[in-house]
Amino acid sequence: MTRFLAVSEENDHLRVQKAALQLRLLGNGEDDGVLLSSDTARRSVPPHEAIPLNTAPTCMSDQILQTFVETRWECHTFGTARMVEAYPEKPDLSALFDGRPNRSVDDTSAVVGDIVRSYTEIDTLPKQVAVHYVMSNLLKWPVLWTKQSYEQIPDWLRPEPCQLQKPHPSWIDRIPWPKVRTYLIEHLGICFDDYAVAYSSSFHIRWDYDPAHVIITTSNEGGGILINPIYEEHIRQLKLDCYWFL
């Protein structure tokens, strides 16, 4: 019982620390009695430590992913070997093809795979792989909070200033177009349901080769499925032209 109370107190302390950091990034907190402006805070904090300021979950996917990030962040911070999963450098795409609960896939790849498979509108392999790759890397960053995990996120998905300054639902952070993210944060009356169907059924990825070539199968035990490095580079160099809401 004593151990349970101690862990509970540590969890509460971690949540307070995380909230305090976000407030400092906003310029609403104090550090040694000095009030920081948001511009000063952004300059003083490395980009990989500037996590978007999210509200409470507003949809099912946010509930799943925010809970996942919070619990894994706490485990990673505690550093308990039995609790901290191995975060692979590349997401394991096996989760897109295997929905069994006992599958041998890391937790990050698994939870993202379950979400991607739930959207029937994401109906081609290049789309599914691209969304899984991007979401997995974006999800890993706030857990590890490292420069390496931040740099694995494509440039066009890294937070805009408004994502660090204004509370907003976390689903907005997963939208690939920076201008659309900014617009949605400035117009928070637009909810997830209003946007999700149009987004998942309308985005297009140009890949003029065999769709099956976006993945490769590894030869290690378990036969994981990874993104083809050529397709990965193609995704990271995407030209994002979007005129919605402008």
UniProtKB/TrEMBL annotation:
Any single Pfam family the record assigns to this protein: DUF3425
Domain of life: Eukaryota
Protein name: Uncharacterized protein
Organism: Glonium stellatum
